[in-house]
Amino acid sequence: MPVDDRPGEACGVFGVYAPGRQAASLVYFGLFALQHRGQESAGIAASDGQTLTVFKDLGLVAQVFDESSLAGLEGHLAIGHTRYSTTGTTRWENAQPTHRQVGATSVALAHNGNLTNTAALARELGVGSATTDSDLMAEAISRGIADGRSDGRGLERALLDVLPTFQGAFSLVVMDQGHLIGIRDPHGFRPLTLGRLETGAWVLSSETSALDLVGAAVVRDVEPGEMVVIDAGGLRSLRPFPPAPPALCIFEFVYFARPDSILDGVSVHAARQEMGRILAVEHPVEADVVVPVPESGIPAAEGYAQVSGLPYVDGLVKNRYVGRTFIQPSQMLRDRGIRLKLNPIPSTVEGRRVVLVDDSIVRGSTTRQLVQMMRDAGAAEVHLRISSPPYRWPCFYGMDTSDRSALLAARIPVPEIAEVLGADSVGYLSLPGLLRAVGGGDRSCTACLSGEYPTDVSEASGKFELEQVARR
Ligand code: SF4
Q: Is 27 helix (H, G, I), strand (E, B) or coil?
């Protein structure tokens, strides 16, 4: 379980086509930079043009791989994955890349996002045992290859056939022995970017920050609805889907992505600072200091301090080496979890009226503890300022918030939230303010904040609808 109650990320994917080099080592470092997107398992598939090899296990990237396991992943072509389990449980079989053998063709797939039509797909495929949506995708693709494998372009043709049957969020890196393929769903819920090394090698990554680490320059984003095929002949761009309005997850800007990443041409760090500036205008308060909740609350707190004129101080310290604790999901253990991660600095907050800036409140238990921590450390008042609007609706596109009853703002009206959390006041950034901070936002998904889903989620939300009916 995570040590706090923020929604979990939906995985990181990375792919390399690097003639003359060992691609797996580059993928290893790429995954290392994407570790924040998933800490439950890590895996790499590599090909030397003839043989495709997969190595994956539960744990962090640095725990899963060592020099000898990397040395066994030979070849110029590789993909990798770090997993956060939004569907399926945490077990080895669900670690990715997912692998299928179809005759002489080996296929490996790494997926970021969630499909919203898994039950329909499973029915169509007649598969009852698939444990994840990624596994279903691999099954559909391998059947497509089996159907049309005689023409020598098996994987590409199969993808063009089956991709339009997938609904929901999917940024994919897929490979066979000779091709690296990157795909973004028609709405582009999850990011996927294309980079290039000086040697001419191609790189695909969930975030630009991972390109920086391996020394690749950003070429461009893979566009929503685009499929890029990279092989010995270079790069080709294909459009397997009918056009759809783009809907990049706005929570990538709020919390999920690294601050040093660029999403859709916008700096995540700059967007977070702007959220804080707008928040200060929308929710000013008489106070003495601005304290960020590390780490994603830091840029917003800087922005809030700039506009409010209040001093910015470090009132909470993050234990940088805590990583992820696999604790039991009971409330009592969750409560201990946050103490492992954050600790107050009493000398900076004692006797002061504190503006505590965080990026979001999801379930609320972490925030309640943070407010209490500030009070225990001697804060005279605690005013919560949140750099995103109330999180009221479940996400079906890859975040682990599909149970609406767990969302604080779905249960409690905003004017009562301060009392529930033990704070003196609470102010949330407005949705227009957030959209402005990310550069307009007409290309964004805001479903968890607005209830407006860019796709049909009737299958995925069936459970939620039943709950609603029961309450009426
Ligand atoms: S519902 Fe929210 S978390 Fe999910 S993709 Fe949309 S903006 Fe992101």
A: helix
Nearest CA to ligand 1 atom 4: 395
Let me know: does 260 contact 218? Beta carbons within 8 Å: no
Dihedral pair phi/psi, residue 107, rounded to 5°: -125, 140
pTM over 0.70: yes
Separation CA 26–CA 349 (nearest Å):
44
Residues near 362 by Cβ (< 8 Å), separated by ≥ 6? 5, 6, 7, 391, 401, 406, 407, 408
**254 in contact with ligand 1, CB cutoff 6 A:** no
Domains of the chain and any CATH numbers: 12-246 (3.60.20.10), 268-441 (3.40.50.2020)
Task: Judge if the beta carbon of residue 445 lies within 6 A of ligand 1.
Answer: yes
| Pairing status of strand 227-231 against strand 52-58 | unpaired
- Crossing angle of helices 365-376 and 414-421, in 10° steps, is 50
> 171 CB less than 6 Å from ligand 1?
no
Q: What is the pLDDT of residues 306-358, one digit of tens each?
A: 999 999 999 999 876 655 544 444 555 555 667 778 889 999 999 999 999 99
Mutate-to-test residue for ligand 1 from 250, 255, 362, highest number of ligand atoms within 8 A of CB:
250
